[in-house]
Amino acid sequence: YVPPQVRKAQETLDDKKREELGRLKKMVNGLINRLSEPNLSSISGQMEELYMANSRKDMNETLTDILMNACVTAVAMPARLMMEHVLLVSILHHNVGIEVGAHFLEAVVKKFDELCKSDAEGKECENLLALIAHLYNFHVVHSLLIFDILKKLVSTFTEKEIELILFLLKNVGFSLRKDDALALKELITEAQRKANTAEKKLQDQTRVRFMLETMLALRNNDMRKIPGYDPEPVEKLRKLQRTLIHSSGSGKETQLRVSLESLLSADQVGRWWIVGSSWSGAPMINDTNSKPQEKLHIGKVSSKMMELARKQRMNTDIRRSIFCVLMTSEDFLDAFEKLLK
């Protein structure tokens, strides 16, 4: 039972919170709508101020919602616009804290997984994939996730998946080659094997052939063979990113080295990639399987020593053991040996 005055206080608190969130959403929305390359510096500065003034959770959720609404549309988003949005996230990720990029990445990956399973007709999957690709381009996430997504797409291998593989390789193929050439080589071999077995099933053979040619061009580091490949815009924005990031270093230490599986099962196993993230899910280790702690065995100790340990308030077995070892050892080497045992 909740007394009426408490109930009323809660309701007014909820209204107040809702109002605050509405105001925050308006401010963030206003900034995102004005976002462009020339004013990125001032907008990222204002966003950092908002992060300082509001709770991180509210800011992360608001920013993620607004960016998802802006970028995940049924029509293909212009690449330039997409890059600028992701660049803003990467600057906040480096300057404010890694939970900014982590929150956004998790939302994008979950949405992508959900849309891949459903047969959506629009370009939402491409848009989400472009977001993930640029998060990798701007050093928010490690190549491990990109390889996971590519492996998943290759394992399904339908027309839709081939489109997505081509799209992803065109955006980040050469960066992947630089980061992990061996993994890319394995992926290409797997794709060739799949293409050979799936040849009868797929109607559009030219698409598969084009994908394999693209992959070979990547393996041979031949940029001319990939139509429409232009690394210039990404490089330009990377330079801008370097000027806007406060901390020194290449940003490799803030890259989230997280796999696709970990992101999709974050609610079950917790978010180990965010330092200090709270988690209220089911325990990771089953308590029924855990073995009872072994009794510590320390030779025969006199009752006088035990009495001393009790006086010093050594109230657990392990504390008593350590106390007795320290008190009865001949020298430091002896103590060290006994402690190790």
Description:
The protein is an all-alpha fold and 341 residues long. It is extended and about 85 Å long. The chain has helices at residues 4-33, 40-53, 56-71, 79-95, 98-117, 124-137, 143-156, 159-179, 181-197, 205-219, 232-244, 260-264, 266-269, 303-311, 317-328, 332-340. Helix 7 (143-156) runs parallel beside helix 9 (181-197). It folds into 2 domains: 4-265, Serine Threonine Protein Phosphatase 5, Tetratricopeptide repeat (Alpha Horseshoe); 303-340, no CATH class.
Could you give a short description of this structure?
Its main location: nucleus. The chain is mainly α.
List the helices and strands and how they pair.
Layout: H1 4-33, H2 40-53, H3 56-71, H4 79-95, H5 98-117, H6 124-137, H7 143-156, H8 159-179, H9 181-197, H10 205-219, H11 232-244, H12 260-264, H13 266-269, H14 303-311, H15 317-328, H16 332-340
Helix pairs in contact: 1-2, 1-3, 2-4, 3-5, 4-5, 4-6, 4-11, 5-6, 6-8, 7-8, 7-9, 8-9, 8-10, 9-10, 14-15
Structural class: mainly alpha
* Coarse morphology: extended
Strand fraction band? under 5%
CATH class of the largest domain: Mainly Alpha
Low-pLDDT runs:
286-297
**CATH fold name of the largest domain, please?**
Serine Threonine Protein Phosphatase 5, Tetratricopeptide repeat
Instruction: Enumerate how many helices there are, as a single number.
Output: 16
- Give a count of the beta strands, DSSP E runs of length 2 or more: 0
Rg estimate, integer Å: 28 Å
Mean pLDDT, as a whole number?
Answer: 82
In oligomeric terms, what are we looking at? single chain
Largest sheet: none
The succession of helices and strands, N to C, reads HHHHHHHHHHHHHHHH
Please name the CATH architecture of the largest domain.
Alpha Horseshoe
When the domains are counted, the total is 2
Helix content: 55-70%
Distance between the amino and carboxyl termini: 57 Å
